[in-house]
Amino acid sequence: MNDHDEAQLFDGRDETEDDYRQYLRDAACDAAQDALRGYAGITLDPRLIDRALADEPDLTGIAAEHGWDDPEVTDKLFAIVCVQLLGITYSEQAARFWSRRAALEDDVQASNDRWVADNPAGQQ
Hints:
globular
């Protein structure tokens, strides 16, 4: 079965390969959103999650194998989001995570909210 055949099967319509890839990206973003919500109690704009997954393409594969709720997956996703949104290093993210996790989560949510205000939906 080629990609086009799989694309036709994913919802019964004749979809293009790009549509199918977008469907998979959207599903990964939704699953990542749910995992972050359960892991850190934060809700991020889907565009930010998509950007995080694009920056770390192996993460989607690891999640497909282990599940989005796997601690390795959610730890890595949260670290990527922290680095992107807060402009900190991975070392600083880890230190803040272990010493002031609630404050770090609050900072990420606040940064997300500012980003959303500055980047209304429909703009990239």
